[in-house]
Amino acid sequence: MPKAVANRFNKNHEPPVTKASTKKTGGSSSTPGDRAQNPLFNTERFGQHILKNPQVAQAIVEKANLRPTDKVLEVGPGTGNLTVRILEKAKNVTAIEMDPRMAAELTKRVQGTPEHRKLEIVIGDFVKADLPYFDVCISNTPYQISSPLVFRLLSHRPLFRVAILMFQREFALRLVARPGDGNWSRLSANVQLYAKVDHIMKVSKNSFRPPPQVESSVVRIVPIDPPPPVKFEEFDGLNRILFSRPNKSCHASFGHKGVLEMMEANWKTWCSARNEVYP
């Protein structure tokens, strides 16, 4: 995986202010339509929707049960509606933000406050960035990195204590599904091998700016410590076969010609790596 270019925020990232932009976005006379055109809140490029409901933001932070000694990782802080609440309770926060304009807004928001020293902003792609040590992860997750975010967190060492993550409702229901549930899937099985997952709360699409087309949910993920001695690649390979034909029996899935050929090739490789004779 290529190493991300992750830099701390500085003023060079701040978008230039022009007369046109000041006229369009400044003052209290701007309309909702004007605000939608404000490049600061044009989040389509990164798939992010700003959480604007203060009650939801406060509830998410409370569910994390933060301690004064906690180091928190926040993914996609946006304009900081969650961040400022986390800073009140945690030792420090590392916020990973893809959009430099959002980072500029967040920096401006905490500037001149005691919390300013407790915040570090990393501009870059969470999937590629080097992650620091953290006790708790909190995220209003951009939809397109939902699955990579979960597995990146579960593969991180040392293990964190808890993650409070907001996802699209459909994705969240697949995360928490149990065997026999209609939403039980390869994702459910892979995640629940390594963590306990609970659904915490539903979040209306009207709690965001701009509002997404779908509802959201908040889940709690607690890693199993110590993790089971199972290689993820092998377990995921097994699930890929089992869930490729959800309406078929396991016997039918493993009896498929392509699967049999793949298993035989893998068995030969396994024997060769251990200097054993293939029977």
**Please, what is the CATH homologous superfamily of the largest domain?**
Vaccinia Virus protein VP39
Approximate strand percentage: 15-25%
The CATH top-level class label of the largest domain: Alpha Beta
CATH-assigned fold name of the largest domain: Rossmann fold
Report the C-alpha radius of gyration, rounded.
22 Å
Q: End-to-end distance, in Å?
A: 37 Å
Model description:
The protein is α/β, with parallel strands linked by helices and 279 residues long. The chain has two domains: 50-223, Rossmann fold; 232-274. Strand 4 (92-97), helix 5 (100-110) and strand 5 form a beta-alpha-beta unit. The protein has eleven helices and ten strands. The protein is elongated, with a radius of gyration of 22 Å.
What key phrases describe this protein's structure?
single chain; about 280 residues; Rossmann fold; 8-stranded mixed β-sheet; two-stranded antiparallel sheet; 10 strands; alpha/beta; 2 domains; 11 helices; elongated
